[in-house]
Design brief:
Number of strands: 19
Number of helices: 16
Shape: globular
Distance between the termini: 38 Å
Oligomer: single chain
Radius of gyration: 27 Å
Amino acid sequence: MKAPLTASSSTDCKEQPLLFQDLGPRKVVVDFSGGTLSSDGGVLLLRQVDHGLGLCRTLASCFHDTRDARWVDHSVPQLLAQRLYGLALGYEDLNDHGLLRHDPLLAAACEKIDPLGGDRVLPQFRGAALAAPATLNRLELSNHKHTRCHKLSHDPAQVEACLLRLGTRCLPKHAREVVLDIDATGTLLYGEQEGRFFHGYYGDYCYLPLYVFCGNVPLWAQLRTADRDAADGSVEAVRKIIAAIRQRCRGVRIILRGDSGFAREELMALCESQPEVYYCFGLQQNTRLLVQVQSALAAARGRQILCGGAATREFIAFDYATRDTWRRERRVIAKAEVTAQGENPRFVVTNLPARGFAEDGDARRFCPARLYEEFYCARGQMENVLKQQLLDLKADRLSTHQMGSNQLRLWLSALAYLLIERVRALGLAGTELAQATVGSVRLKLLKVAAQVTVSVRRVHVQLSSAWPWREIFARCARGLALWSAGHG
């Protein structure tokens, strides 16, 4: 009987072994003859979520494939799965796929019928089931390169709508209230990229992407040049997001939250013109606002003396309008804080009702102190989400020349985040990784060695018996399988 093929069947490693300190009478010898094993056993969890969301399938519909099918080894959904799973697993550079293309488990996750690459069209490529870095690079650059090799163009408007549609699908259909966090962040550039502009705040040439999240779910990732106001384009984005959420959740209350860069007349007026849409934005201080808060600061100083120098704060609310830029008065909440370092007044502007919403039964939910400390300050969670995008998923790796291809990279990073977020929300709820960062989920759940055996009847994946996270992995896999069965 012929032995089944394994991931290491064709490996012939002739490298010199590495010697380490002896273990008693035994030599400790290390080499690379184990074959093309996988170090990313958790990629199967990403595949499970992908199937439930239909992410790669939906995203592939945004691409126009003009390749000759007779010579095509990699379909568009497979190329996108390879790129997205790679990002989620920590391989942000296309060059990484020079070796990853030999990973049998990643190939199986990307729906390669032969994970060992024995079915490739051209004989010289057999043994590498996945696409090479050059193929993935053409996928990202096809909109900007007009050669016979670049035949995978995408429609940016459709990709933008795809992220919004997939994100809103993650919201509960019967949600009574959703809070949208909007923010802009500077992304430093690598060289002479299209649209580069020196931004004084960041002290370098950068882009200024606009993000919108609902909790941990990404809804919007728009690449912009840095020669603009932070709120530029936010009105159009919010209008589309509101429409998508209304389609998903009928009658839901929407609250938009952001820093002072978004306290702009056009954006506030849009929220005020929509039923059940509210906002809470930071407000940059000026001399007129500081006059309004002087009495509260005096009271805070008096309390500080009584408290032995500890930081104290007072909260007040008043109506305020700018001289030129606002068309009407709006409710402003002021925090009059005095610390050992001095006075620290802060302001927010909102149209949230002072007496709360009657159906919530909490008349003091939006009183000045609670609105600022419990609601507005909670927007700091979005900063943590953005850090995960930048630090864990390298959303700042915008190193192609054209803005269009860099925008595609930004979308791919946001979609990779969505995959891991769904693993965390659906599979890890109730476990110690339920609130873990993307980096922690990757390190503890996705990065696990796997022995892959491919036979005629099955792909057998063997994980370590001594793996500390095996119970959580099994629980996550079962939960995702049940969810995927109901949504696939």
